[in-house]
């Protein structure tokens, strides 16, 4: 029984992790290829570490409920016990799947506040794969996905 539950939990964890979006300055989606983006020179005014959480992605809840329902249906000896076990397993699995999805999709990043050369200020939140210090010259890229990159890269 425990082995069956472990086998059901593994796909949940893998699918939940697969739902995590890439938020780094070096991460591009295929749909962003061959598109034109605006680029403006700027200077980093400040940055702060932030946590980026998943947007209402219900994949963890759905997979957890399905796995819990299957696992719960194996409990008991009669039809009523199987049905109640499946319902209880689905509820517990859905709650556990939602919690797993929330934790697995959490990422750290930076919120950059930059001053454009025209004096306007904007913010960009991105992953922590690129670190730009306050006072450093950079470029802000506007498009489907905004990002801040060091000047000259």
Describe the structure.
The protein is α+β, with helices and mostly antiparallel strands and 153 residues long. It has one domain (2-150). The chain has helices spanning 2-18, 59-72, 79-104, and strands spanning 38-52, 107-116, 121-127, 137-142, 147-150. Strand 2 (107-116) and strand 3 form a beta hairpin. It is elongated. The relative contact order is 0.24.
Beta-strand percent range: 25-35%
Residue runs with pLDDT of under 50 for 5 or more positions: 5-10, 12-18
Mean pLDDT: 73
The secondary-structure class comes to alpha+beta
Structural domain count: 1
Pattern of helices and strands: HEHHEEEE
- CA gyration radius, whole angstroms: 22 Å
Distance N terminus to C terminus? 54 Å
């Amino acid at each position: 029984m425990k082995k069956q539950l472990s086998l059901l939990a593994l796909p949940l964890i893998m699918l939940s992790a697969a739902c995590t979006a890439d938020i780094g300055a070096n991460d591009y989606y295929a749909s962003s290829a061959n598109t034109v983006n605006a680029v403006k020179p700027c200077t980093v005014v400040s940055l702060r570490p932030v946590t980026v959480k998943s947007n209402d992605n219900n994949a963890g809840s759905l997979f957890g409920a399905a796995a819990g329902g299957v696992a719960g249906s194996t409990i008991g000896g009669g039809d009523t016990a199987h049905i109640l076990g499946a319902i209880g397993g689905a509820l517990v699995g859905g709650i556990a799947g939602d919690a797993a999805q929330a934790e697995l999709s959490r990422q750290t990043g930076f919120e950059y506040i930059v001053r454009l050369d025209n004096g306007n200020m904007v913010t960009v939140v991105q992953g922590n794969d690129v670190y730009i210090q306050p006072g450093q010259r950079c470029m802000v890229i506007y498009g489907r996905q905004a990002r801040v990159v060091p000047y000259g890269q």
